[in-house]
Design goal:
About 80% of the residues lie in helices and about 0% in strands. It is mainly alpha-helical.
């Protein structure tokens, strides 16, 4: 218990000076990562028929949308949504290729590159 308390105190003492725009992008990136988890949990829930993966899927879905909502406070909604969906799509596809033996065909890899290019373009065009 004492170790947990020390960690909590240490973390509460940290002061991170990050701009609002950077924080918004971190929220969007985190939302995209959690989206990957909820989509994979959706697969393992077997059509939402397995209790534990289904409950975890709903929790991850809520968390992802919550993080997305935090990011949209300072990033245009269209940009935020496109980046969130793109990160999730690329992430799920990458996990499928690396861990689930899905096809790494050249056309799939090219499409991933196009999505990443689009995400970078949206990020670069975000000038407030």
């Amino acid at each position: 218990m004492r170790t947990g308390l020390q960690v909590t105190i240490a973390l509460s003492c940290l002061k991170i000076n990050v701009g609002i725009g950077v924080m918004a992008w971190l929220f969007i990136a985190a939302a995209g990562m959690v989206e990957i988890a909820f989509v994979l949990l959706l697969k393992y829930s077997d059509g939402l028929t397995k209790l534990i993966p289904s409950v975890l899927c709903f929790i991850a879905t809520f968390a992802s949308i919550f993080l997305l909502a935090q990011g949209t406070k300072h990033i245009p909604i269209g940009t935020a949504y496109a980046v969130w969906a793109g990160l999730g799509s690329v992430g799920v596809t990458a996990v499928g290729i690396v861990f689930l033996q899905e096809s790494p065909s050249p056309i799939r890899l090219m499409c991933i590159a196009l999505i990443l290019t689009g995400i970078m373009g949206l990020k670069l065009s975000d000038v407030h």
